[in-house]
Design a protein that fits this description.
The complex is a heterodimer of chains A (343) and B (337). With 343 residues, chain A is an alpha/beta fold. Helices cover 30% and strands 22% of the residues of chain A. Chain A has eleven helices and twelve strands. In chain A, helix 6 packs parallel to helix 7. Chain A is globular, with a radius of gyration of 21 Å. Chain A starts with 10 loop residues before the first strand and ends in a 25-residue tail after the last strand. The longest helix of chain B has 17 residues. Chain B folds into two domains: 213 residues, Rossmann fold (3-Layer(aba) Sandwich), CATH 3.40.50.300; 98 residues, no CATH class. In chain B, strand 1 and strand 2 form a beta hairpin. Classes of the chains: A alpha/beta (343), B alpha/beta (337). Chains A and B meet through helix 6, helix 7, helix 8, helix 9 and helix 10 of A and helix 7, helix 8, helix 9 and helix 11 of B. The structure holds adenosine-5'-triphosphate (2 copies), iron/sulfur cluster and magnesium ion (MG) (2 copies).
């Protein structure tokens, strides 16, 4: 549940810009993003493939690697500026204060090391003076926390199922009780029952630690099951953010609406509707609103002026020129938007 | 009913491990159908698909295509089978050779099956197939695999299948790597192929939502056995088998009134030993009864257009036929477009 308003944010991102240098100029994969997260809060971050979610997650840890670079902005973690930290401070901060469960974490486990050695490595890199017996006990505790039997510690990654590997990666990420956990698509490759188990595990871990979580996903489905608040990314920007129910039932940004609608339910058969067109090239963003070439509502101003985030509801912001003129998103124009054919 | 393909008592064992256990399923030739095969990881979906495609041989049972046993076909029959039954696989990275342009995947089948006698005809066939899956030929041809997105590569594979005008496409997790928007677009294309070109489709997935949206019938596998099968409206809309119930209740719906409870789900591992006797789901089943451990449950028909292999429905009629398709509903040829 969202924390009361007076609490200081545990994570505060301000005007973050991350670029990939390419032969054609910088690709603006994270474009002027600001978000703030309260302790214990669950923020979902969703958007199509390539919208910049992983780039953003990586930058929060200051793990951006060339050709990527953090062009500007600040990331304050519990009052400390990650961008200003020395290499040593940064090493200590990662895992201890903020931990990333990377996209494809299952395959990030070292295939030739038993699980217990990998977990112990992570712990001893940050704490000194723990005896072997204490370390073993800690490994067992961490595995139990993610619902794995203690004997799993002796196994190699290939001896684990996908869901078990994903949970092992979670055990490593939470080994030092971080204040913020960033989970980048932790369940994409898993079947739904295992997804549910993994998400329940993440929820339990978070409750135990009182940590804030940023959960990254493709669509509203999984995120709705978990998050208090949802941010929608499009072409490097957060185009809308708000409490999860409002985002599903009363989205204001046309892209959020289309993203919600592209996920069919199991009540009525309906036509499957993808979002027509493709995201813009990040090196050459259209002037004005990045979504304007695909937006069924686009009007003149959208093509010329970049919309800034504005309040569109209780704790809900959207970057869209339909507001403040409209009080809600108008009904979708009938018929598909075929100005832009699917390439 | 004339059958396009008949899967008869199909069993596959790897050593002592039974990956698929006595599955019988026929695909009608009367009307092009869309059938989903779902189930958790390791339940035997790919094993079934590979046998339907004739890539691996069954340990027991047979796959008949046009009445002929695929394992016993002559070279020329096999050739026709290979053309008429096309695979579309999950991982589009593996299929493409990174050093060849995309064109290669498309020109090879044209040459192998002599689909065109001139280069111009070949080109127009290829362009038509690409357009059918929503790709612009001029933006696709001449490119290398890494220059296309995952979703675009996946569509090239569908285009390759379309090129051969197959009777049946077996698509093994064709969209598991793409996001919801693109997934909707690609599946909509598959459904269009089914309707417009009369191609039957077996859609293997663990995404029950899309199975519900595009398919007529579904087979839910659990550890190599059929747990439930029938019309999607029945099996997904109102599941009867405790495993399908678990599966459906685990769908992450963007619906805040259907949020997952906090109750833990018993974990089992896909590769754990199969039970020798009894219902494979018994170790995890919340409704397990004494008799569930003693013998495998028969295929009960609790209402219409579906069967559930579960003793909870003891007392209902038992399916008259081993063929799970005996309870299928006819394909909706005139479904809303
Ligand atoms: N090393 C790189 N060089 C150039 N561009 C890159 C590089 N890595 C990522 N990009 C580009 O940056 C954009 C954002 O990529 P990112 O991986 O953050 O997306 P994402 O939202 O996590 O997508 P997905 O859902 O597929 O994981 C994409 O357009 C991608 O092509
Ligand atoms: N060549 C093989 N040798 C031994 N075991 C195998 C082989 N191929 C598959 N299996 C086993 O058979 C079972 C069924 O595998 P299959 O690939 O059919 O599952 P699946 O339902 O397609 O799973 P997924 O959703 O993960 O793709 C698994 O337990 C797998 O480990
Ligand atoms: S047969 Fe028994 S164990 Fe199997 S699913 Fe039904 S109730 Fe559960
Ligand atoms: Mg990513
Ligand atoms: Mg498979």
């Amino acid at each position: 549940m969202s924390a009361p308003k007076e609490v200081d944010p545990v994570l505060e991102v301000t005007n973050l810009n991350v670029h990939y240098d390419t032969g054609h100029g910088p690709a603006k994969a994270v474009n002027d993003v600001s978000i703030s997260l309260k302790p214990g809060e669950r923020l979902g971050l969703i958007g199509e493939s390539g919208s910049g979610k992983t780039t953003m997650a990586t930058a929060l840890m200051r793990l951006t690697r060339p050709p990527g670079r953090i062009a500007s902005g600040s990331v304050m973690l519990d009052g400390k500026d990650i961008m200003a930290m020395s290499a040593r401070e940064l090493r200590e901060t990662r895992l201890r204060d903020i931990a990333l469960i990377p996209q494809g974490a299952m395959s990030s486990l070292n295939p030739v090391m038993r699980l217990e050695e990998q977990i112990i490595d992570a712990i001893v890199a940050h704490t000194s003076g723990m005896k072997r017996a204490a370390l073993n006990a800690r490994v067992e505790e961490l595995l139990t926390n993610v619902g794995l039997a203690a004997e799993v510690a002796r196994r190699f990654p290939h001896e684990l199922s996908g869901g078990m590997k994903q949970r092992a990666a979670m055990a490593i990420a939470t080994s030092l009780s971080p204040k913020v956990i960033v989970a980048d698509e932790p369940t994409s490759a898993l079947d739904v029952v295992v997804q549910r188990q993994v998400m329940q595990t993440l929820g339990r871990l978070q409750d135990g630690l009182g940590a804030a979580v940023v959960l990254i996903g493709h669509d509203m489905g999984l995120v709705a099951q978990f998050a208090d608040r949802v941010g929608v990314m499009y072409a490097g920007k957060i185009v809308e953010i708000g409490p999860v129910r409002q985002m599903i039932e009363a989205p204001r940004h046309p892209y959020t609406r289309l993203l919600v609608d592209s996920l069919p339910g199991i009540k009525v058969k309906q036509a499957l509707i993808g979002i027509p067109g493709l995201p813009p090239p990040l090196v050459n963003l259209p002037p004005g609103c990045s979504f304007s070439p695909r937006c069924p509502f686009a009007f003149e101003r959208c093509k010329n002026e970049v919309p800034q985030p504005q309040e569109v509801g209780d704790r809900q912001q959207a970057a869209c020129h339909l507001y403040p003129e409209h009080s809600a998103l108008p009904p979708m124009p009938v018929g598909p938007n075929d100005t832009e054919a699917q390439p | 009913m004339k059958a396009l393909m008949e899967v008869q008592g199909l069993t596959k064992r790897y050593g002592g491990f039974t990956a698929l256990d006595n599955v019988t399923l026929s695909l009608s030739d009367d009307a092009p159908s869309m059938t989903a095969v779902a189930g958790e990881s390791g339940s035997g979906k790919t094993t079934l698909a590979r046998m339907m495609l004739g890539f691996i041989e069954p340990t027991q049972g047979a796959v008949l295509y046009g009445g002929k046993d695929v394992a016993k076909m002559s070279a020329s029959e096999k050739r026709q089978f290979r053309r008429e039954v096309q695979p579309v696989f999950q991982d589009p990275f593996e299929v493409f050779n990174p050093f060849y342009r995309i064109d290669h995947v498309l020109t090879t089948p044209v040459k192998r099956y002599r689909l065109a006698d001139t280069d111009a005809k070949a080109q127009s066939l290829i362009e038509d197939a690409l357009k059918r899956v929503g790709l612009r030929p001029q933006d696709t041809l001449g490119r290398f695999p890494h220059e296309l997105s995952g979703g675009q590569r996946q569509r090239v594979m569908v285009a390759r299948a379309v090129l051969l005008r197959p009777r049946l496409i077996v698509a093994d997790e064709p969209v598991s790597m793409v996001d919801a928007s693109l997934r909707a677009t690609i599946l909509d294309e598959l459904r269009t192929l089914n309707r417009d070109l009369g191609i039957s489709i077996v859609y293997i997935t663990h995404d029950l939502t899309t199975a519900f949206q595009i398919c007529d019938n579904i087979v839910v596998l659990y550890r190599g056995t059929v747990a439930e099968a029938g019309a999607v409206e029945r099996v997904i809309g109102d599941p009867k088998h405790p495993y399908s119930q678990l599966l459906v209740s685990s769908i992450p719906l963007p619906d805040l009134d259907k949020v997952w409870g906090a109750d833990e789900i018993p974990v089992t591992e896909a590769n754990a030993a199969r039970l020798n006797n009894g219902c494979q789901f018994a170790p995890r089943c919340p409704s397990v009864m004494e008799q569930c451990w003693r013998a495998p449950p028969p295929k009960f028909v609790p209402d219409t257009q579906r069967l559930a292999t579960c003793f909870l429905y003891d007392g209902s009629a038992v399916a008259p036929d081993d063929d799970v398709a005996s309870v299928f509903r006819p394909p909706e040829t005139a479904r809303l477009g």
